[in-house]
Hints:
Elements: E1 13-20, E2 36-37, E3 40-45, E4 50-52, E5 67-69, E6 71-79, E7 87-89, E8 92-93, E9 96-97, E10 101-102, E11 120-125, E12 130-132, E13 135-144, E14 157-159, E15 173-176, E16 182-183, E17 186-190, E18 194-196, E19 201-210, E20 213-220, E21 225-226, E22 229-230, E23 233-237, E24 240-246, E25 252-258, E26 276-281, E27 288-289, E28 292-293, E29 307-314, E30 326-331, E31 337-345, E32 363-366, E33 368-370, E34 375-377, E35 379-380, E36 388-391
Parallel strand pairs: 4-5, 20-32, 20-35, 31-36
Antiparallel strand pairs: 1-19, 2-12, 3-11, 6-7, 6-10, 6-13, 8-9, 8-12, 13-17, 13-18, 14-15, 15-24, 16-29, 17-19, 20-29, 21-22, 23-26, 23-30, 24-25, 27-28, 30-31, 33-34
Amino acid sequence: MKHIPALFVALAATIFGLFSCSHADDWDDDSLIAKNEVTLTFALDLNSQVLSRAAGNRQLTSSDDWQKVSSVRIYAFRSASETGTYTYYRPTDDGMPLDYIYISDFSGKADVWGDDEPNWEEHEYVSGTLKFADGWYKFVAVGRDDIDGDDETGATWNLATLTEGTTTFENWTAATHNAGISCGEMFVGCTSAVEINDTQRLHETIILTRTVAGVLMYVENIASEINSTAVRSIGIVRRKHTWGLNLTTSLPTGSESSFAADGATLVGTTPAAEDFVVKYDIPTTQAVSNGYYVNLGAGGTDAHPNAVLRGSFVTPQAASAADCTMNFVYLDASGNVLKSMDVKLADDIATKTPLYPLLANHIYCIGRRNLENNTDEPIDLGELPDNYIMVVGSWQVDVDIEM
């Protein structure tokens, strides 16, 4: 896939909704009857680097701030007053309620991208019979990469069921399908309160921001044995994790899963698939030289043929109270941990912080790989201290990472 070589932080996408309200035929005076015709026009700002292309869970392989969506849906929440409670609302289209407004032009495209593209893609949703009741509204736009249109096959996210008149704007949540920490890329944006009636003409902007975090693992010189036991996998785990997300705040929510108690050693434990942030299984026939796996062909470059590059989008996580945020682990053939190292934040070199949240729209990099600035520096596991790895980096600020 070809990308524009530029970095844009904070903004993920900009969608403009032009609400053109005209006098409709006389409807029942009940305020809940949808009676105002609305035409919606949406434009995606390509300069924000969102790829509106084919679905398929984009792989995270660098710290470049590239983004991709293959499904965009707009949901409405209505209140009788500007400061009241906003609950889920379904407008009607030709008399039929719509669960959401689906912008089909973001779906089903080939994976092509480059400077020859126009600066703007204009996508229209036009229906002379789309109607809203009088009232105040907040619109929520959700852009996802794990589905294509209405096809939920392979989806990593379950959005909580919306009940009209009951589900509130503030409490709408999503959760990963398998209760795991890894997930697909997702963007969410909300409008402020806007009024719709038969005299209003509105122009609203929705800014979508990535609601998930990213973790990139780029390491080389992986030991073939730990204490005379063959290393068959490596990875990054989180001792405790939640798998829920508040869609309008991008904050973690829900119960917490744990495979090891705070302070307990991870050696000898067996993390489940959902506990892994990133994992790489080493082929049983992989060549070994001087005690390290060589020529892995797992994302390394000509300069680093013994490197493994893997990344994942993950649900945001709060900092645990008495725990390390993430651990790098070596595993045997049965998935048991042979060795564990804390993954510590390098913002403060003096303290080497082990406790930090995983924030939405931030990337946490173990090793340096950035295609835009030609950075190619995996962490050399053969030269690390025995008890920690350093990580730093953020899409929000700057992806030039110091280790």
